[in-house]
Specification:
There is one protein chain. Helix content is about 45%, strand content about 30%.
């Protein structure tokens, strides 16, 4: 029996016993401080190894501050130049806009000048040549080719004398053209015209007439003749050449 008990104690099934060593707390604190010192030393060593040779920390801070100041200065200069460039671009845009407006105004003034010249010529033509002159006359005939087959005409018809009665008549326009190498004459209004009232005249002192005549394609306009008809009789006529 004693042999079995002794054998059980030596076998794997015997109960295990753990022995723990309890160190005094001053010794544990000393070991902790020693380990922390070792870690700080190693960390400082790695830090010193990682620094750039010949670049002290104090000087590095100063150079960093200087670089920051330079960056701020360059940024301010860039912003100033950008503002100046934007202002110059805005001024150029305004100048271009003003030039365009001036061009439009000049064109309008040129148109008004042409119109004033025409009105001046019109009113000058209203002045009577002879206060005792009787009958109807053509005082002005102006023609202009506005397209290869279109003619714009302006006509001023006057009645001399005291003008005791209204003149009622018709306007006839004969356009001379070159077509197919031959000269031909086209009369307006044409027999099939749908606007006969366009060529009617009815006035006491004067009447101003204008319009556009269209000739066949390929015809070259050479001249235009205006006739004033009264009951089929020619009372006045005038021609204009291109």
């Amino acid at each position: 029996m004693k042999l079995k008990l002794w054998w059980r104690r030596l076998s794997i099934s015997s109960p295990h016993m753990t022995i723990k060593t309890q160190l005094p707390w001053p010794l544990r604190a000393l070991m902790f401080c020693a380990g922390l010192g070792v870690l700080l030393f190693v960390g400082n060593l790695f830090y010193e190894q990682g620094r750039v040779p010949g670049f002290p920390m104090a000087d590095g801070k100063e150079q960093i501050e200087q670089l920051k100041e330079q960056v701020q200065k360059l940024t301010a200069e860039r912003d100033q130049y950008s503002t100046t460039a934007n202002a110059a671009e805005t001024k150029q845009t305004m100048d271009r806009s003003e030039q365009q407006q001036l061009a439009v105004q000049v064109k309008a003034l040129e148109g008004e000048n042409v119109k004033l010249k025409e009105d001046l010529a019109f009113f000058e033509s209203l002045l009577p040549v002879d206060a005792n002159a009787q009958g109807v006359s053509i005082r002005r005939l102006k023609s202009e080719i506005v397209a290869p087959n279109q003619l714009h005409y302006q006509l001023l018809v006057m009645q001399g004398g005291k003008g005791d009665h209204d003149f009622v008549g018709n306007l006839q326009l004969n356009v001379t053209v070159i077509q197919g190498g031959k000269s031909a004459m086209i009369a307006f209004p044409e027999p099939t015209s749908t606007e006969p009232q366009k060529y009617k005249l009815a006035f006491k002192h004067y009447q101003r007439v204008d319009g556009i005549l269209t000739v066949p394609d390929g015809a070259v306009i050479k001249a235009v003749q205006a006739r004033i008809l009264d009951k089929g009789q020619i009372r006045a006529q005038m021609s204009a050449y291109m």
